[in-house]
Write a sequence for this structure.
């Protein structure tokens, strides 16, 4: 193992394409998690996916044979709820997303409003329609501020990819001329929260991800050691499209402990 990597105190890991694809655990993940526990490393699974709550993510991994406490998960839905509650406590929002996003907003005191909300909030969902686009477009045109949980265009699943949050936001940006504010990675807000949760300084932490445009750039801009794994979206060829580089490129998280 890379000695510099081994000595880091905190590990921030993306999930989709790093820990699993769909409902399939990736090779080497169990051994990597065991190594984290055995070496008393602080770690956080930091995901741009907004559909599931930390409890549901814990249960998802439990079904795959990994028992990880709820406190080790942080999502873009939680980051979005935290951002809105600080910007405008007890505000209201029209929401396009799944229950993970609704739950996070509700627990932060944000109410659902489809008449005159302060915000339109968009996260991943498979329940997306022309009706949603029309409603969101008109509310933004009337003055609601457009917020998105993350800027991922696609997400990896078993057998391919699916449209992610940004793909759902683009029609509303295009029809209103308004740009969404994206809360998740690579926004430093989410990364700083992750470091606070770990209780480590950026120089003592590692960012492990499969995307150059969210995970790795977030790590680079926040001052973390960066590890790109090729088990998700990125390939060695696509890395060449970016002006920045990760510290290490590996096939998967299992290689970290070899």
């Amino acid at each position: 193992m890379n000695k510099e990597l081994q000595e880091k105190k905190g590990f921030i890991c993306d999930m989709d394409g790093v820990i699993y694809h769909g409902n399939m655990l990736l090779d080497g993940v169990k051994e990597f998690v065991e190594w984290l526990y055995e070496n008393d490393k602080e770690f956080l699974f930091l995901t741009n996916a907004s559909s599931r709550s930390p409890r549901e993510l814990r249960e998802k991994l439990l079904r795959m044979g990994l028992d990880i406490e709820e406190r080790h998960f942080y999502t873009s839905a939680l980051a979005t709820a935290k951002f809105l509650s600080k910007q405008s406590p007890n505000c209201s929002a029209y929401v396009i997303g799944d229950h993970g996003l609704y739950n996070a907003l509700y627990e932060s005191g944000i109410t659902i409003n489809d008449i005159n909300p302060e915000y339109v909030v968009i996260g991943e969902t498979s329940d997306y329609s022309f009706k949603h686009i029309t409603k969101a477009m008109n509310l933004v045109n009337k003055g609601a501020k457009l917020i998105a949980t993350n800027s991922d265009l696609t997400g990896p699943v078993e057998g391919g990819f699916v449209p992610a949050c940004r793909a759902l936001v683009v029609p509303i940006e295009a029809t209103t001329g308004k740009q969404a504010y994206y809360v998740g990675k690579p926004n430093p807000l989410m990364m700083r929260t992750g470091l606070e949760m770990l209780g480590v300084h950026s120089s003592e932490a590692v960012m492990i991800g499969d995307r150059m445009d969210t995970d790795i750039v977030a790590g680079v801009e926040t001052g973390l050691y960066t590890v790109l794994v090729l088990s998700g979206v990125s390939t060695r060829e696509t890395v060449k499209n970016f002006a920045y580089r990760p510290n290490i490129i590996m096939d998967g998280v299992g290689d970290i402990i070899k």
Observations:
- The mean pLDDT is 95.
- The chain has two domains: 3-48+185-257, 87-182.
